[in-house]
């Protein structure tokens, strides 16, 4: 196989033993082509892991959605590696794939950084697959000149505060069971836990829609006449897109990042329009509620909901940001509650709305808790510097 985006590494990546072959997947022209088998196998592995971890496959990105996203190399290079048994003739078949890694490397902004996740079929754990994939990812990232790696791992639930064997990031917020296999795996490879993200789920139908209505009404009063809410779908209005790009840039540094080696990622109008196009191509509807400060005419906050068009039972609460100078007016609650009211009409079959927040972001977590989001797990962000 060869990689995408114009590079041509060897077909087989480094492996710690001869038990597994790790290969870089070429993106197929279509999911129906024979060349799509390894890519589909990688998606299958992620589906199996997410289902085993959370009890549902909501967090798995279906192949028909993942392919357009990976094809968009305008600002980020995204690669897939698969692990198979040695001796596979020709391209691996879908069922030959026993492990996969998804790697992302920004092309602007954080050009020193690579982020990745490793997935191994639940019936093939503790057999060296994860090690082989991580070795290959690290080698590939080093070839690309990346000096910092961030590995994300999802953990269902969270140990209680009085648990004995727990791992806590330096922020002091977020706990992971110390005996979780991923802890030994990450530490053994020289990674340090830098941040824990709380994974929360809001289940539908809500027990009482009136709770959201009440919070929205209270937030509108607190915001007062100086602020107005604006909502758009899929495409930001032309007269707002420059301001929206500026807020998106602020999002990269204005939220808690703990000790993660992140720098500002500037978003341009072109970046916004490309992201909108990719969302359309991947079958993902996006609703954005923003707040405009009337006296200045400036956008000062936004909150997005991602809604896969073919999966009406799930949605994802994405970025929510209020510019620092305008905090304290309940604008975060206003935007989130406004979106929840709109979802009643847009997604009547909605069952679950998923979201992630830094565990130390107590203000945003308080908003989510008030609206009914239930803590479901922790995503551990492990960091390693190669240089």
UniProtKB/TrEMBL annotation:
Coiled-coil boundaries: none
PROSITE patterns: GNAT
InterPro entries xref list: Acyl_CoA_acyltransferase (IPR016181), GNAT_dom (IPR000182)
Domain N-acetyltransferase: 49-207
Any Pfam family matching the protein: Acetyltransf_1
GO molecular function, one term: acyltransferase activity, transferring groups other than amino-acyl groups
Gene3D superfamilies xref list: 3.40.630.30
TM region(s), chain numbering: none
Signal peptide span: none
Origin superkingdom: Bacteria
Protein name: Acetyltransferase (GNAT) family protein
Native organism: Sanguibacter keddieii (strain ATCC 51767 / DSM 10542 / NCFB 3025 / ST-74)
């Amino acid at each position: 196989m060869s990689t995408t985006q114009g590079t041509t590494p060897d077909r087989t990546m480094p492996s710690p033993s001869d038990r597994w072959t790790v290969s870089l997947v070429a993106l197929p022209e279509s999911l129906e082509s024979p060349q799509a088998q390894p890519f589909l196998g990688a998606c299958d592995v992620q589906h199996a892991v997410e289902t085993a971890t959370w009890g549902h496959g909501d967090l798995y990105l279906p192949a028909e959605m993942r392919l357009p996203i990976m094809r968009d190399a305008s600002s980020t290079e995204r690669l897939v590696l698969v692990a198979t048994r040695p001796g596979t003739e020709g391209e691996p078949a879908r069922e030959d794939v026993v492990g996969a890694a998804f790697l992302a490397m920004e092309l602007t902004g954080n050009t020193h950084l690579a982020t990745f996740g490793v997935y191994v079929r639940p019936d093939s754990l503790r057999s060296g697959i994860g090690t082989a994939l991580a070795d290959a990812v690290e080698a590939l990232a080093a070839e690309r000149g990346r000096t910092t790696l961030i590995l994300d791992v999802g953990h269902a639930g969270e140990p209680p505060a009085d648990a004995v064997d727990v791992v806590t990031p330096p922020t002091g917020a977020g706990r992971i069971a110390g005996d979780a296999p991923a802890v030994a795996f990450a530490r053994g490879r020289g990674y340090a836990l830098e941040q824990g993200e709380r994974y929360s789920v809001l289940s539908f139908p809500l027990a009482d829609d009136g709770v959201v209505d009440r919070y929205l009404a209270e937030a509108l009063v607190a915001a007062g006449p100086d602020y107005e809410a604006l909502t758009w779908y899929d495409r930001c209005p032309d007269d707002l897109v420059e301001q929206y790009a500026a807020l998106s840039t602020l999002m990269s540094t204005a939220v808690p990042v703990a000790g993660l080696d992140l720098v500002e990622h500037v978003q341009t109008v072109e970046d916004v329009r490309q992201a909108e196009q990719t969302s359309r191509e991947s079958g993902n509807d996006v609703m954005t509620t923003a707040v405009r400060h009337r006296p200045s005419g400036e956008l000062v906050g936004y909150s997005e909901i991602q809604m896969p068009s073919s999966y009406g039972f799930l949605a994802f609460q994405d970025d929510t940001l209020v510019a620092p100078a305008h905090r304290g007016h309940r604008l975060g609650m206003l935007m989130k509650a406004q979106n929840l009211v709109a979802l009643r009409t847009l997604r009547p079959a909605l069952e679950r709305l998923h979201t992630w927040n830094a565990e130390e972001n107590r203000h945003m977590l308080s908003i989510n808790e008030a609206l009914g989001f239930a803590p479901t797990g922790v995503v551990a962000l492990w960091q390693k510097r190669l240089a």
